[in-house]
Amino acid sequence: MFVDNLNKQRLQNLLFMSKMKIYYLVLFILIYSKVSFANNISIANVSLTTKNTSAGADNAANFRFVQFDISWENSWRTSSAPNNWDAAWVFMKYRLNGTGDWKHANFNPGTGQTAPAGGVIDVPTDGVGAFIYRSANGSGTFSLNAAQLRWNYGFNNVLDNDVVEIKLFAIEMVYVPQGSFNLGSTGTEDNGLTNGSWTSGASVRLDITSENALNIENTAGNLWATTGTITNPIGSVGVLPAAYPKGYASFYCMKYETSQKQYRDFLNLLSYTQQAGLMIIAPTSLPGSGVLRNTSPFYRNGLVIANSGINSSRPAVIACDLDRDGVFNEDNDGENIACNFLSFKQGIAYLDWSGLRPMTELEFQKSCRGTATNDYLNFFVINSSTAIYNQPFTLVNSGRSDENISNLSNANFHYSSTKNTTVSEQGPFRTGIFASSTTSSYYQAGATPLGIMEMGGNLVEQVINLVTNEGRSYDGLNGDGNLTSNGLANVSNWPVGTSNPKAYGTKGGGWNSFLWTELRIADRSQIISGITTSLLENAGIRGVRRPN
How far is the C-alpha of 429 from the C-alpha of 442, rounded, in Å? Predict the structure, then answer.
């Protein structure tokens, strides 16, 4: 942690004067650190401006501006197809007096922010975070200096004289614009979504043209599914409510799968009890113990305990140590590798804490297709035979922030045919690994037409399906930044992961998927295979959020 020298001196003076009993004075002091970042996004030069205490005795509207610089690579905005942009989702945690639990901060909804020239800052109505993005068309590295977010600290019950420590976090997102798209395909995949006019053979496309309720029945114009390996891939005849997110309305989707660095930073801001609810070992375990996978092989998961916790009085300190050499958070320790071994419960806890939410299987299809009608997950057909570069390759700079591959490829799947046979390299790769200076199109970079990375392969995407009543009751409420005392998501109508695992399943295939068909958009072979344990080496999480 980096401490502002002036504030540090003020704190030392305060302690000295208190001990000498000259007089008592409490300062509202910022202690800040250079925060964690995703694949290539960074926040620096964080500071707090002077307090505004004009709210009076109730303190509720008292505020300060949080000022910072933000930058990330491979940014874009375009007004032509697909008419979208990427963004940073920025949120903040704080704690008082250097001890106690970290809490979620709220920014002023709507107006009150300061966006430097070239940037836009949108704070949703709940104030849980802010979307920051380009104000005009462009591409490449995007940077804003001295951006300001208005923190209504009084709303968070922070007093004017409290000593406060803050941490800012940023997640790269992609805007998925409102619009119609196709469900299903014209293929013969098992269990695929289809127009209710289907009777046999190839599925029939169904256009999603609004967020209105959908009838689920085997008649023309309604939502249905083909038969196959799943006993009942569509559930009972009924209605998919209007509140269930269908992908027509606009939303933001995480550009990358959650990285091990992001999950590490998440665990490090939880209480001991919350950590215990999300780790497979006790926080008191010895340094070097794996927190999501503690037996070999680790399948490239490097999350370990660096400093043991002490019962409920002190949480553990979590670190990345991919090479298991006991030296933590080195450049080759896999911080930017996608985080595997996440059950649905563990994954959505991170999403709620971040102010995001889990996606539905319909939003998954929209994120992959945009308005395109290709049948593969996120690759157009190449040479009339395959859309996946399926040639052997080896990892270069394994585990480092610049980890890449030796040959052109665009999907991490089917271990035996796409990678070398070094056992230590089995597992997920660095997020965004397939995008390089040699890729000339989105499918070569392993991206969807909208610019979302690795929706096929690497790790399976955990989604809420439309099969069970619990899944259908999901209304897409965004995370509020807070968890239960046991570390679980606390948002109503989220299937937490234990009461009905058939309310969620997986899409997109993972690094160990043997068949390329599991990477197809329309594939639903695992749509009711809810992941209830943290022992699956190919399971990760990716979140979404509606703009307001």
Answer: 18
The pair of structure tokens assigned to 142 is 């995007």
Q: Which two tokens stand for residue 197?
A: 């006019």
**Tokens encoding 247:** 């992908």
Tokens describing residue 43: 């926040």
Tokens of 329: 């958070």
Please state the pTM of the whole predicted model. Answer: 0.90
Single-letter amino acid, residue 511: W
- Nearest Cα neighbor of 28 from 9, 3, 54, 10 is 10
Cα distance from N-terminal residue to C-terminal residue, the chain: 33
CA–CA gap between residue 386 and residue 410 (Å, rounded):
12
Instruction: Please list the residues that pair with 66 across neighbouring strands.
Output: 48, 149
Q: Are strands 251-254 and 303-307 parallel, antiparallel or unpaired?
A: unpaired
DSSP 382-405: BTTTBSS----B-EESTTSTT-EE
Distance CA 43, CA 166 (A): 13
Buried b (16+ CB within 10 A) or exposed e, 28-41: bbbbbeebbbbbbb
Beta strand pairing status for 164-176 and 30-32? parallel
Phi first, then psi, for residue 369 (nearest 5°) are -90, -35
Q: Are 106 and 113 in contact (CB under 8 A)?
A: no
In this structure, what token pair is assigned to residue 391?
């040639």
- Half-sphere exposure (Cβ direction) of 14: Cα atoms closer than 13 Å: 14
Residue 156 Cα distances to 39, 63, 108, 346, 357, angstroms: 30, 10, 11, 26, 22
Question: Can you give the pLDDT of all 548 residues of the chain as single tens digits?
Answer: 323 333 333 333 333 223 332 222 223 333 333 333 345 899 999 999 988 887 655 566 789 999 999 999 999 999 998 999 999 999 999 999 877 899 999 999 988 899 999 999 999 999 999 999 999 999 999 999 999 999 999 899 898 889 999 999 999 999 999 999 988 777 777 889 999 999 998 888 899 999 999 999 999 999 999 988 888 899 999 999 999 999 999 999 999 999 999 999 999 999 999 999 999 999 999 999 999 999 888 999 999 999 999 987 899 999 999 999 999 999 999 999 999 999 999 999 999 999 999 999 999 999 988 876 655 444 433 333 446 665 677 889 999 999 998 877 888 887 655 554 444 578 999 999 988 767 767 777 888 889 999 998 899 999 999 999 999 999 999 999 999 999 999 998 898 755 567 889 999 989 988 777 788 888 898 998 878 776 789 999 999 999 98
Contact 438, 548 (CB under 8 A): no
What 8-state DSSP symbol labels residue 420? -
Q: How many residues in the chain?
A: 548
Q: Report how far residue 255's alpha carbon sits from residue 454's, in angstroms, rounded to the nearest whole number.
A: 9
For residue 216, report the phi and psi dihedrals to the nearest 5 degrees: -110, 100
Class of residue 525 by CB neighbours under 10 A (exposed 0-12, middle 13-18, buried 19+): buried
